[in-house]
Amino acid sequence: MYRFLAISVAIALFFSACSIKDQAIEASQPVKVIIKTPSVKLSGIGFYKTGYKYANLQLFSAGVVVLDYKSAGTVCINDKCMTRGIFNEKFFLKPHYNGLIDDILAQRPIYKSENLTQTPDGFSQYIAKDGEFAISYEMKGLDSKFDDSLNQITIQITKIGKEQ
């Protein structure tokens, strides 16, 4: 089963490499991601790639690309591009600062480290705005979890192995 998945991922990456060849990839990290919103429920294993002002998250399920997120000047999901503001309103259901999704995917503190509490193996944040959002965000070891309880949005990321 895992061998089939690994071969499928390798083949999918080989054929999708053309779409990102114009961006210099500085780091690539295998990840497991779970995304739950009122309109999307998605779980997969894939790769999070970064470069200079560029990020790409590709998730696979049963060897098929189920999410291809690219972020440079705009945000593109499965080749449908939009401004960061429009992405935030569609995905997070509320306006947020433009780099929120990139900070979450990179497992960095959000909102300029507002209400940041350092822990022995990461950090936690709780940020709320009346009637807009109630965010609990935690990074622990290789795992992070973003949860907006008011808008029912959860993003869990687990890095697989060590960073390259």
Pick out its properties.
164 residues; alpha+beta; outer membrane lipoprotein receptor (LolB), chain A; eleven-stranded antiparallel β-sheet; 3 helices; globular
Layout of strands and helices, then pairs:
Elements: H1 2-16, E1 27-36, E2 41-51, E3 54-61, E4 64-71, E5 75-77, E6 80-82, H2 84-91, H3 100-105, E7 116-119, E8 122-129, E9 133-140, E10 143-148, E11 153-159
Walk me through the structure.
With 164 residues, the protein is an alpha+beta fold. It has a single domain, classed as outer membrane lipoprotein receptor (LolB), chain A (Clam), CATH 2.50.20. It has helices at residues 2-16, 84-91, 100-105; strands at 27-36, 41-51, 54-61, 64-71, 75-77, 80-82, 116-119, 122-129, 133-140, 143-148, 153-159. Strands 6-5-4-3-2-1-11-10-9-8-7 form an eleven-stranded antiparallel sheet. A hairpin with a 3-residue loop joins strand 4 and strand 5.
Proportion of residues in helical segments: 10-25%
Are there runs of 5+ residues with pLDDT below 50, and where? Answer: 2-21
Biggest sheet descriptor = 11 strands, antiparallel
**From the coordinates shown, what is the CATH architecture?**
Clam
Mean pLDDT: 86
Q: Choose one word for the global shape.
A: globular
Q: How large a portion of the residues is in β-strands, by DSSP E?
A: over 45%
Beginning-to-end CA distance, first to last residue:
25 Å
The total count of strands amounts to 11
> What is the count of helical runs?
3
What is the element string, with H for helices and E for strands?
Answer: HEEEEEEHHEEEEE
Overall structural domain count: 1
Per CATH, the class reads Mainly Beta
| Broad structural category | alpha+beta
Strand line-up of the largest beta sheet: 6-5-4-3-2-1-11-10-9-8-7
Rg: 16 Å
Write down the CATH topology: outer membrane lipoprotein receptor (LolB), chain A
